[in-house]
Amino acid sequence: MIGPSEILSGDSLEKRDFFIFQRVQEAYNAEFQRIQSLDNKSNYIIGFVGLLLSIDVLITTFLIDKLDKMKWYNLSILLLIIISLGLLLLSIYFALHAIKIRTWTYVPNTEHLLNTYTQGDKSYHETLVKITLEFAHAINENQNNNQSKAETIQKAINSLTLGITLFFGGAFISFILLIFNF
User: Fold this and answer.
1) pLDDT score of 68
2) 108: cis peptide before it, omega within 30°?
3) Can you give the pTM of this predicted structure?
């Protein structure tokens, strides 16, 4: 077992700090992987909604052609389908908003690294600790950006879910009514 005096020795202290640096660097890299994952989700939503919008417009056009044969309840179903169109468009808006360009914090800034840490008498240990702190700061900023992105994607998913529900519900009911000539 390592005692307190061994932990405070220079060698153990540098090993501990390097271990901490590696964990912080892994967390930093994980946030950048999360950016890619969230952007991919937004892109999938946009593609899926684009397909649904095509179908929605096709069915809405078909139903509008049948307006003269429709009764009042069919018109309310048509309204549901049109509202679903709006929700699907809102879903695309949120997905696009999620993948908009944001300012990300990158560490280390090479110029800052060279100007600050290569000038003067900075030890390996001092440099490691300072860079680790910069990583920690960047992780916090990038986590906030990613959290905002994730919340916007959730809004896109909520709009998509409600839009799909209204769309398929309205389309199903209106086709049943049209088939049975109600």
Assistant:
1) 64
2) yes
3) 0.76
CB 7 within 8 Å of CB 118: no
pLDDT tier at 6, thresholds 50, 70, 90: very low
Quote the tokens at residue 182. 């109600």
What DSSP string describes 20-53?
HHHHHHHHHHHHHHHHHHHHHHHHHHHHHHHHHH
The letter for the amino acid at 1 is M
Closest alpha carbon to 159 in 73, 74, 98: 98
Residue with tokens 């529900």: 165
pLDDT tens sequence across 107-152: 777 777 777 767 767 777 787 888 888 889 999 999 999 999 999 9
Q: Where does the chain have alpha helices with state H?
A: 4-7, 10-65, 72-98, 110-117, 124-179
Calpha distance 170→172 (Å, rounded): 6
Q: For residue range 56-105, list pLDDT tens digits in order.
A: 888 778 777 766 666 666 677 778 888 988 999 999 999 999 998 778 88
- Using CA atoms, how far apart are residues 173 and 165, in angstroms rounded to an integer? 12
Cβ neighbours for 176, distance < 8 A, ≥ 6 positions apart: none
Task: Confirm if 98 and 42 have CB atoms less than 8 A apart.
Answer: yes
